[in-house]
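Recap quiz, item 2
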Amino acid sequence: MLSKERLIEFSDDARKNYLDHISIDCVVFGFHGGQMKVLLLKTPDEEKWYLPGGFVLKQEPIDDAATRILQERTGLDKIFLQQFRVFGDPDRSKFHNDLYRDMLPAGENWFSGRFLSIGYYALVDFFDVNPQPDQFSELCAWRDLDDMPELQLDHELIFKSALDTLRLQLNYQPIGYNLMPKDFTMPELQKLYETILDKKLDRRNFQRRVLAFGILTRADKPRKGGAHKAPYLYSFDLENYTNALTEGFKGGW
Amino acid sequence: MLSKERLIEFSDDARKNYLDHISIDCVVFGFHGGQMKVLLLKTPDEEKWYLPGGFVLKQEPIDDAATRILQERTGLDKIFLQQFRVFGDPDRSKFHNDLYRDMLPAGENWFSGRFLSIGYYALVDFFDVNPQPDQFSELCAWRDLDDMPELQLDHELIFKSALDTLRLQLNYQPIGYNLMPKDFTMPELQKLYETILDKKLDRRNFQRRVLAFGILTRADKPRKGGAHKAPYLYSFDLENYTNALTEGFKGGW
């Protein structure tokens, strides 16, 4: 909890710099070798954890704001964030409004109002990044999806909604370019999908379907090594991959 | 263009009632028998057309605001609108800001600020609804997708983005419950998809794919009639249809 002096200072700064009533929250999923995590913050004096979030500068495009906020709060740089939904329940900030109500009259307290939050999400390799907590946070950490702490405000809803969006995305957009090595086997790619979906997939169906997307190139020769039956190696066809990001899959309609 | 008196009146009312900096724009697509249209408004003194839009009351949930705005501006009632994206370019309202700048100082003019617009879309049967222009509009009309007028502000971008979303949606969510008769043939359903996508689809692939979604029930007997080979009739399995709306298709991963 902020002291009254810091609250006044932050409130005055915020009123000068940020658009009223708008916040951004970022859900960053991390994948590596069959594990899936999400990036969360914790302040020193509250038990619950937060999604990294912040506000939009008065003349800042919202996508730029999302990137800046994630960088400032977690140290993560150059992350491609996708907008997925606005959270607009009138009482979603009630916990914080109540917390600071007695410290500063509503007219002086910029944070006392209603905030709509624009949700952004990303999927990164958690070995490639080094999260750093900001000045408000004691911890900035990857938490396992099957061992989630309690979340503040409506951040549980925002997190779940991002996960639903990511899982739906597997049906209509390519995924994995920043998560797989340059060359990979079909079982390695299948592991990525299984981890996101949290379920086993049929090997033949997976292969048939993912090949129909038209975003993979198969190497001429199987991977070298001692195995009796060496697996074929695949890589992403970047042109088709990029087209499918904007236009959906060839294997679509 | 508003008179100065009306601008002052609207500006004062708006400041009292609405959240600053937030607007909502609705893209309502209409389908009927192989035709696809979009619902637009036109004011008496501007050449360009608008998407129906408006503002969010200070304590109103945003989905409720979208429904109310659409009703007030077009007369369309009980339409299921889906949020799809926020449009947050800092200069997106520049045309209107400039238009009214000389009439009223920015401090007194609520409309002079930056607005983020939350886009909502819907797909309805255009024979089921009767659009009515509001007090600001001269026309409220269904316009053909292949004969679109010029649109004001960034409404062309919002419209195109809604159309992309609708087309992508065909890959991961069911569509058509409110557009098809209770019983329909496979070619009738295919026509809906072809109209939305604006392209011909292969008959066999369409049938195979749409059946794999698991949302259709086939009637025991073909449709009665004089035809040599009567087509089978299908209807939506509402339970599976509703599940697929939230969880994606069975035929997904």
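The longest helix of chain A spans residues 155-169.
The domain at 4-169 of chain A is CATH 3.90.79.10 (Nucleoside Triphosphate Pyrophosphohydrolase).
End of item.
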